[in-house]
Design goal:
single chain, 151 residues, mainly alpha, 85% helix, binds protoporphyrin IX containing FE
């Protein structure tokens, strides 16, 4: 047990909280209950628990590798799109369809980042994983809109 492994643990807890929040948001969208208040409190905590330990891990061992750079960019986009969607939902300025598309795209991006963090591929493959996550999330959203997924 060393500092590195403890910091990695905090980083992974931050990532787990992100997925818990995404799950609550998705269930809320489906069942029609608001999740923006919870996300407003725990979202920034999760984001910081991911970023600062992540920067430490990068500096301690990995440097500016492609998967780290893609991870930082995706982390930023997930935070900004998530905050924008939450504010839009709270103010009634965004439709449920758009909020669902935003949610699916962020889930896809986050899964792409988990792939990058564990496999640690080249810049191109790292980028491809996140773009694939976005594309799959977008495709599921379009399929849902067209009723392909309804039973
Ligand atoms: C959505 C955002 C993120 C998620 C879901 C995420 C998730 C993870 C997970 C699950 C691991 C463990 C991989 C393993 O041990 O095999 C990991 C490792 C790592 N993450 Fe992240 N991460 C994110 C963002 C970031 C950011 C923004 C940085 C850099 C600032 C970063 C830097 C690192 C580093 C350097 C490791 C390697 C640790 C190691 O394998 O020893 N991560 N990440």
């Amino acid at each position: 047990m060393d500092l590195y492994s403890i910091v990695l643990f905090v980083h992974i807890v931050g990532a787990l909280v992100l997925f818990v929040l995404l799950t609550v948001e998705g269930v809320g969208l489906r069942a029609g209950f608001p999740s923006a208040a919870l996300n407003r409190v725990l979202g920034p905590i999760s984001a910081l628990a991911i970023l600062f330990p992540g920067l430490y891990l990068m500096k301690a061992q990995w440097g500016w590798t492609g998967w780290v750079v893609v991870g930082i960019a995706a982390w930023f986009l997930i935070a900004v799109i998530g905050a924008g969607t939450g504010i839009g939902v709270m103010r009634g300025r965004i439709t449920r369809q758009a909020a669902t598309a935003s949610w699916l795209i962020r889930v896809g991006m986050a899964l792409g980042v988990v792939f990058d963090m564990t496999v640690k591929p080249s810049l191109l493959v790292s980028l491809g994983a996140v773009v694939a996550g976005i594309a799959i999330g977008g495709a599921v959203s379009v399929a849902g809109r067209r009723g392909v997924l309804s039973t």
